[in-house]
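User: Structure tokens for this complex, please. No commentary.
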Amino acid sequence: MQKKIDGVRIIGVDADDTLWVNETYYREAEDAFAELLTPYETQNQIGQELFKLEMKNLPIYGYGVKGFVLSMVEMALVLSNNNVSNASIAKILQLGKDILNKPVELLDGVETVLETLAKNYKLILVTKGDLLDQESKLERSNLAHYFHHVEILSDKKTANYSSLLQRLDIQAQEFLMIGNSLKSDILPLVALNAHAIHVPFHTTWLHEQVSDEDCKDYDYSTVNSLVEVLKFLG
Amino acid sequence: MQKKIDGVRIIGVDADDTLWVNETYYREAEDAFAELLTPYETQNQIGQELFKLEMKNLPIYGYGVKGFVLSMVEMALVLSNNNVSNASIAKILQLGKDILNKPVELLDGVETVLETLAKNYKLILVTKGDLLDQESKLERSNLAHYFHHVEILSDKKTANYSSLLQRLDIQAQEFLMIGNSLKSDILPLVALNAHAIHVPFHTTWLHEQVSDEDCKDYDYSTVNSLVEVLKFLG
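Assistant:
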């Protein structure tokens, strides 16, 4: 028998890789990008260098597809020593457009879970990334009507959540966050004394990865799939 | 004697080219971009083609610097018939980073006006563009403390404002919007029966331009500089 989480009034739900597929498309684009640059470097090295450049550019580009594509273009110039073909640059731009134009693919059980939760709780979508891209995905998902409020953040650190809860006049103890990223959806909330349930996705971006050691003092639950979340709620 | 605007409780203020310089930096980048492509086309043609491409990409890239840079890279490939140098592509990426890293340059009277208005009204910053870039500019402007709420929209059409007013529980008649763009800051608000004061900036992006004919049935005031806004308020 699953121990219930008591006192929850509002539930925050992450979007990318919690409600719909996202990271998979980035990985496919990274593979295609590495393929384009095989004349210049090994796939492993290309992946590592791209990640380093994305982290370097993060303070000005932020999260999302557009910054990812700009970093890929920059990386192609650098790794090829300014020898990459214009055709390859064009393909990199197209990789970005392909991600932005992907149909929204809902994960298992999403509609059932949201429909059930929406009956008893106020649901808030809490995501990060490019503003228009996230709004567009939500609209195309046909899930928008389940959410009382939609919040697209530039980052998902403790300070961002703290400000969000304050702005929406929500006490931490009455807030539960559900998401796939320990770093972005779980640990910051537990740090605020809110509740959190981790629903892992099979693929996690390196930037979102945290060690077991980082999590050991945090109190949260992990489930294998979104539907299991219902067991925690009355 | 200026006729006062009565019944206002909340004032929305646009950011780019209303509080701080923005369009000027885009124009400088466009000039530098055209310079890079002079071997392939006339400056005039380059400007026109770039605008067309930006409009074509707007539904997926949205507003802001990152989409602008991605469109410039794409345009360089197309206009050069895939002959543009990698060095030129690198310079285009740098044009974008330069905009993102520009110091925030406040327009005349901004601090006086916000300080005065904040005493009697709730101020809301209402802007569009890249989420992180706008947040970063607001932080660097040292103006954040004047605003009760900050709203970064993916677009500024009537529906976006209508949804914003509803979400914040604001009646149109008690809302005044101040901004430099007739298309984005003024006409949509007048259409909602809210108040609006137009403070033109010397440079307006083609996409934001509207004809006199488009405005003729709209009731709003135009002032020469932001400080004149104070004359309309009690």
